[in-house]
Amino acid sequence: MKSSFILIAFAALFCGTNVEAGALDNEAKILLTFKQKYNNSQSDLAFLIDVSGSVSDYGFASEKIFVENLLNEFSVAPYSTRVSVITFGAEVKTDINYIDINPLSLTHQKCEFKPWFEHNVKHRYGWATNMKEAFSTTSNLLQTAMNNKHRRSNVHTVSILITDGYWNRGDPRANANSLKSNYGVDVIAVGVDRYSQWQLEALATSKDLVIGVSSFSKFRELAMYIRGDAHDKSFMEVGGAINVPRAMVAIKRPSAAAVQSAEYTSASARRDIMEQAFQVTVIRFRFCRFVLACIRGTYKKWPTPDSCLPCPDHSTTDAVGSIIVNQCKCFTGYEGDPSRDIACTAVECEQLVAPDNGGFRAVCGKVYDSVCEFQCNSGFNLVGSNSRRCQSDKSWSGNAVQCQIITCADLPTQAHGVKKCTGNGNEYGNTCTFTCDVGYERKGSSTRTCQADGQWSGSQATCEARKCPALRQLRLVQLNQWIA
């Protein structure tokens, strides 16, 4: 016999926080009775959620919290609780349909419902409150499930209406009554803030199934109160030869701390076991499998067995575990918006211009991270940054570039001579020539040129007085006497 940790169980757990004494007692009692009646049983739940213009963002978020918390203790799966979500404003939309499904489906369970409901059921701010079509859509959904032979017989079916206003676009009472009489549906009517009590009573199966809450803040308190303890188990159907009509398989799930940092997906499995009490030979079950979150740069539209999708080109996510494309952000240096399908493209800086008497060492681009390198012509010095990079804020790093002409030290003016220079007399390529006055002779270079290294060619020029040769003295003659 194979040992197994599979447990045959039927559970109904509830643990709620306290609310203000008497403030929500009646409403909470109705909902707790509902949970005790339908939890861990075969049931179809159809939520009708008001998305008319009078519902604020806070109100819509409260409606979703209410639905999530009401389902917190339910096992959403094809064999147990099936759920549909219909939103109504001026238009009516079926956001989730887990009722008209193949009973052997390996999907359509809470592992997939929760993220889909969180991210894909959105406020539409419709200007009308079309309850009539909402009830009609629910009837059509159930009828289609029957036509497709997907509707289970003898299951509890409940439609939960959540609204903050009065109906318009037609009287919905006939549609609600048709839903109740033709499909055996219990209607619970929940009104918040500006609801009409008599309208809710006209729509609900009985006055005992009418819930009125004065504000969305009170409604949120009620939602938190009915939440109860989240299961630490996933309840799954047992197949095979057993001596009971229904049983549930309980499989341990990860700790609450682990759940916060991970995603869930679904899988199917078979195990052969021997169970004397029920003579079980084969158990088929589905379970939520603890898996790694998507790595950075990838995401899942919702937690499913699907592979993680890569972010659009030139974008990534801030961390692991991203579940929607909105969490993809353009790389540094790129601009766009992946959430709106706007491609991420490199930012562009202003095009740089080559400096006078110089140029670029290579082609100079202008998109993010492009590097432009400068050089000056011979005889010119580069002033500024010899390379500049296009930055993410569309500015260039470094400082502007100039090519300044090289200068040599001024040559001194010559005594007893003349210096003549071209240009400014001390810049690269300038030449200076030297001549001496009459009676003086030049020593050094007659022409000197300012060179690229900032030095003058040649040697320093000077003017020295010419000297006559000494006269020869005559023999036996004294020159001074001769002169005398």
From TrEMBL:
Q: Which residues form the signal peptide?
A: 1-21
Biological classification of the source: Eukaryota, Metazoa, Cnidaria, Anthozoa, Hexacorallia
Per UniProt, the keywords (alphabetical) are:
Disulfide bond, Glycoprotein, Repeat, Signal, Sushi
**What is the protein's name according to its record?**
Uncharacterized protein
Per the record, the domain of life is Eukaryota
Disulfide bond sites: 376-403, 436-463
- Ranges where the VWFA domain occurs: 44-226
Q: Which organism is it from?
A: Desmophyllum pertusum
PANTHER family recorded: COMPLEMENT C2 (PTHR46393:SF7), SUSHI DOMAIN-CONTAINING PROTEIN (PTHR46393)
**Domain Sushi, first and last residues per copy:** 347-405, 406-465
